[in-house]
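G., the chain you wanted modeled:
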Amino acid sequence: HIAGSGVDFLWLISMLRAYAKKEYTDVSRKTLIIAVGGLFFIIMPYELYPDGPKMLEYLMNIKILKVILDESKVDIDRYRAWKESQEGDEDPEA
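Predicted structure as tokens:
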């Protein structure tokens, strides 16, 4: 299921880009808050446990990413269907 998560992550980023460009706006407020907030937390250089083991941070980031993808699944699937109907292309980087 990890491979599927990687694909969903690419679709999530594509959806957020399209939303920012106002190309696609059918994204729930919940998904926007969870996705942007969670990704911000992951990419910030701030360490929650500065003296703690790095493995703990990696595991926490993986868990946060999983929550983001799980909670955004409906919007990601809806965006994917919309994008494929617009372009007939399954590549989220297109």
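Residues 15 and 21 are 10 Å apart (CA to CA).

Shout if anything looks off.
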